[in-house]
Design a protein that fits this description.
Elements (H helix, E strand, L loop, with lengths): L1 H13 L2 H14 L13 H6 L1 H4 L5 H4 L17 H15 L7 H26 L20 H13 L4 H4 L5 H23 L2 H15 L8 H5 L9 H22 L8 H23 L16 H16 L5 H15 L24 H8 L3 H5 L5 H22 L5 H11 L4 H13 L3 H14 L6 H11 L3 H14 L5 H13 L2 H21 L1
Helix pairs in contact: 2-7, 2-8, 6-7, 6-10, 7-8, 7-10, 10-11, 11-13, 14-15, 16-17, 20-21, 21-22, 22-23, 23-24, 23-25, 24-25, 25-26
């Protein structure tokens, strides 16, 4: 008897490193193929254009006083200096190997951030796997490891392998989602520590990381809402309100200075966006719980809602019928999913058929569904050391990993990315337009023409569509057709100099001096207007 009592502390102290190493190693191995992926030319092209500025560490201070993408002022109403810092870090790392941006450096940072986020999720679940009488676990050697670290390990491995995460990890600009998640998860973990220990240092670092999350992406504003279900000691409410209020007020003040004209959304617009977002929820649920029809650029029209609805109904049934439910943790999971996801729907026209339901934006929100999964009663009572349970768990993990690797392949290069987007979202003009661009780069002019024509059928006002089609005609020396497309693009997008510059190329071939002088005059007027705007 004495021997068994002495062995318990050794058991609980011997296992902690193993699950953490396993989660980290699985994340690294699973996403190792992304290191060999190229640019896909969807937003990451902006990184190519800003490489000369971002490859210098001296650009870091400017990131905190400028909108995102410093070389494109006014083009984006985003203030995300912490996310921009990681882009600068990757660009600087690329500069150590030459004067060209290297995609594998960005992919490596993404991979490491995802592995780190898996560890943070493990720590959070570990702390939440406590007796019902306590929100936080009591650190005691008498607690059975089967009731603590095994569910945390299951949640960490599920998150590491979930195909949804590939949209953020395998796509270079998904890095801002990874940075947001790292800051938010770290801040929430310190919130749990403060709830347990009441240490001022924990509260201070919780507030600091919350501020970092706000500087990473706007979705972080939901973090205090996520914390509310776990508030149990009213005496600590005032310090927490200060820890949340000071970062929010500071962030809004700085953001308002850097982006003085960014507040175009009224309360009515936000409510309309949230209403539209309700229609999109089944799609995001399906990407995590039923990931069989994933798309890199999904739209509501081209996405099936029924897999997500079925998965959501099964999850709700399992939670309602299961025993040992924690209302606080159920509320935590639901608020986590909805709170971090709904801000992504605040868009100028979320009800449009061309609105893209970016899968990468569900990266942090998906953790809420993971927390709900871990609340299922049968999962709490499972015998994790059983060979049958291990076999079933391994089969589920292998299936998820296989779907993940398959989805990763769509981010290999631009041709794979847009080809898969056009196939999975056949009614999205943007997908066909850029797929044609990639086909033209591969000298597949016939395929490019078919893709451009399909995009014209779907949305004749798609930005750059007429310009790029004009380039295709220009390469094939069809100057009249090229001129017509460039003129159409210039009429649709009068502030874009590119179609005008392409018109100069057409007139250089056709020798039309008068038209050349007219276009040069328009370019000078446009350049003057842009200089005045700066």
């Amino acid at each position: 008897m004495e021997k068994s009592v002495k062995s318990a502390p050794r058991c609980t102290r011997s296992h902690p490193a193993r699950p953490r190493l396993l989660i980290f190693a699985v994340s690294l191995v699973l996403y190792l193929p992304t290191l060999f992926s190229d640019w896909v030319h969807y937003d990451d092209s902006l990184l190519l254009r800003t490489f000369s500025a971002y490859s210098r560490l001296s650009s870091v201070p400017e990131a905190f006083s400028s909108p995102a993408w410093t070389e494109l002022p006014g083009a984006f109403s985003y203030y995300r200096p912490v996310s921009t810092f990681f882009y600068i870090l990757a660009a600087w790392g690329s500069s150590l190997f030459g004067d060209q941006p290297l995609p594998w450096v960005h992919h490596l940072i993404n991979l490491l951030l995802h592995a780190f986020n898996g560890l943070l999720l493990y720590e959070i679940v570990l702390r939440l796997s406590a007796p019902e009488a306590r929100v936080l676990p009591k650190r005691s050697p008498r607690r059975s490891p089967e009731n603590s670290w095994n569910p945390a390990l299951a949640g960490g491995l599920f998150f590491a392998a979930a195909p949804l995460t590939a949209a953020a990890v395998a796509w270079i600009p998904g890095q801002n989602e990874l940075v947001l998640a790292a800051c938010s998860l770290g801040s929430f973990l310190l919130f749990l520590e403060f709830q347990q220990s009441a240490k001022p240092a924990a509260l201070g670092f919780h507030s600091l990381l919350f501020f970092g999350a706000l500087l990473s992406k706007e979705n972080a504003i939901a973090l205090p809402l996520v914390c509310l279900p776990l508030l149990t000691r009213k005496a600590r409410l005032l310090p927490l309100l200060a820890a949340w209020g000071i970062p929010v007020v500071t962030w809004l003040a700085i953001r308002g200075t850097v982006l003085p004209s960014s507040g175009h959304f009224t309360a009515q617009t936000v409510l309309r966006c949230f209403w539209e977002g309700l229609h999109y929820l089944p799609v995001y649920v399906g990407t995590l719980l039923a990931p069989f029809q994933l798309s890199v650029l999904p739209t509501f029209r081209d996405s099936s809602a029924w897999p997500g609805l079925v998965a959501l109904a099964l999850l709700a049934g399992a939670l309602l019928l299961g025993a040992r439910k924690s209302p606080r943790r159920l509320a935590l999971g639901a608020l986590w999913f909805l709170g971090f996801l709904f801000p992504t729907f605040i868009h100028a026209n979320p009800g449009s058929e061309q609105f893209v339901l970016r899968v990468d934006r569900g990266y942090l929100a998906s953790i809420g569904l993971v927390l709900l999964l871990l609340e299922m009663g049968w999962l709490k009572n499972v015998q994790w050391n059983s060979r049958r349970v291990l076999a079933i768990s391994a089969a589920i993990f292998i299936a998820l990993a296989g779907l993940n690797l398959r989805f990763q392949g769509n981010f290999k290069n631009g041709l794979s990315f847009y080809g898969s987007a056009a196939a999975a979202s056949p009614n999205l003009a943007l997908a066909h337009t850029h797929y044609a661009d990639m086909q033209m780069a591969e000298l597949d002019y016939e395929g490019a023409l078919r893709s451009y024509q399909r995009a014209l059928e779907l949305n004749p006002t798609e930005p750059r569509l007429h310009n790029n089609l004009g380039v295709l005609h220009l390469r094939q020396k069809r100057f009249a057709e090229a001129e017509a497309e460039f003129l159409t693009e210039s009429r649709l997008n009068p502030v874009d100099p590119m179609p005008l510059e392409n018109l100069l190329v057409v007139y250089a071939h056709t020798g039309e001096t008068a038209k050349t002088e007219a276009v040069i005059g328009r370019l000078k007027t446009l350049a003057g207007a842009r200089a005045g705007a700066k």
